[in-house]
Amino acid sequence: MRSGFLASLAFALATQPGAASPHPPQQQGERIASSWTTTTISGEGQSRGYVEYQKYCSACHGEGVGRPGTIALQAKYKDALPALLDKRTDLTPQLIKMYVRNGITVMPNFRKTEISDPELDRIVAYLTRNNRP
Ligand code: HEC
Q1: From the CA of 36, how far away is ligand 1's center (Å)?
Q2: Measured in angstroms, how far is the CA atom of residue 104 from the centroid of ligand 1?
Q3: 122 with 41: CB under 8 angstroms?
Q4: What is the distance between the alpha carbons of residues 26 and 63, in angstroms, rounded to a whole number?
Q5: For residue 133, how far is its CA from the centre of ligand 1 (angstroms)?
Q6: Which of 13, 104, 114 to mutate to test the pocket of ligand 1 (most atoms within 8 A of CB)?
Q7: CB under 8 A, 24+ apart: contacts of 58-67
Q8: Does pTM surpass 0.90?
Q9: pLDDT higher than 90, residue 65
Q10: Do the Cβ atoms of 63 and 84 come closer than 8 Å?
Q11: Arithmetic mean of pLDDT over the chain
Q12: Whose C-alpha in 6, 18, 40, 59 is 20 to 30 A from the C-alpha of 103?
C-alpha cells in the first residue's frame, strides 16, 4: 500500500513543524515577499522552464508510479483537477511561488540558492502557459 505509506509519512512530517525544513518560518516570509512579483515570459523562457521543471519538480510531480506529488494531488482533487501539475490551467504564479518557497508536507521548500528567482519565474511561465489570460 504505497499511497497509504506516503499518506502517513506526509502526516508525520506535517505534524512536526520544521521537520522537513531546516529554515525558520520567519525567514521564509521574507523570501516570499521579495519574489512575489510576476514576470511575463514566453517562447524560449517557457521551454527553459520546462527543462527546469523536469529537473526540480518532475521526480515528484511527473507521470508514472511512485511520484508522491502526483499521488497526493490525485487524492486531493480526485478527478476534479488533473493530478499532473503541468496539465493544470488554474494555478496562479503567486500560488506556485508560495508552495515552492514554503514547501508543503513532503514537498521541501526551495531556497533562492537552490532555485533562483529567474528560474522560478520560468517554471511558473511553463506551468501557466495554458492559463486563460
Ligand atoms: C519531494 C517531492 C516534491 C518535489 C521535489 C516537489 N513537490 Fe510539489 N508537491 C509535493 C506534494 C506531495 C504535494 C502535495 C502536498 C499536499 O497537499 O498534500 C505538492 C504540492 C504542490 C503544489 C500545490 C498544488 C495544489 O493544487 O495543491 C504546487 C503548486 C507544487 N507542489 C509545485 C511544485 C513545483 C513547481 C516543484 C518544483 C520546483 C515541486 N512542487 C517540487 C511534492 C513535491
Answers
A1: 18
A2: 7
A3: yes
A4: 34
A5: 24
A6: 104
A7: 60/106, 60/107, 61/85, 61/86, 65/2, 66/2
A8: no
A9: yes
A10: yes
A11: 82
A12: 40
